[in-house]
Amino acid sequence: MASLKLFKELFTNISTTGAVTFSSKPLVDKMLSYANFKGAKIIVELGGGDGSITQGIVDRMDSDAKLLVFEISSKFCDNLKKLFPQDNVIIINDSAEHIDRYLNGDKADLILSSLPFSLIPKPVRNQIYQKSKNSVSESGKFIQICYSYLLKYQFADYFPNIKTTFTLKNFPPVFIMICN
């Protein structure tokens, strides 16, 4: 999908994308610097969007790892499937609240998310938090980028340890929550 079509999809569905632009390379690099990809076998991305974070994950993950990418926009999914035709990258056109249906009882080593939790209805948001907590391995991490520091208090109901960092190298600037 051409860049213009991606931006059109971004703005047309801003209530589900929750962003005014795609994640910058410096943001992706900083977010992923908190993830240990060495030996991670199951990685989940919540909110694949244009694939900027997906590309960073694919560049870092082991060749025998599996990446499940959740995206609710069918247009973004079609684009992601073209960008990532590898057998170990599975593009899922479904809500992140159904993460457990696709893990088949396995646990993810990493869950990386750019979901706009502030825009997601509370019952669905709570389902995603709970299922993410239940779906990440005991030694794994849930890493979220967000525009509001206040989301930390929502994550705290599900994750006992949260480290927060901030980057100005994105528009708009974002917080990164590292949860385990």
From TrEMBL:
<keyword id="KW-0489">Methyltransferase</keyword>
<dbReference type="GO" id="GO:0008168">
    <property type="term" value="F:methyltransferase activity"/>
</dbReference>
<dbReference type="InterPro" id="IPR029063">
    <property type="entry name" value="SAM-dependent_MTases_sf"/>
</dbReference>
<dbReference type="Pfam" id="PF01564">
    <property type="entry name" value="Spermine_synth"/>
</dbReference>
<protein>
    <submittedName>
        <fullName>Phospholipid N-methyltransferase</fullName>
    </submittedName>
</protein>
<keyword id="KW-0808">Transferase</keyword>
<dbReference type="GO" id="GO:0032259">
    <property type="term" value="P:methylation"/>
</dbReference>
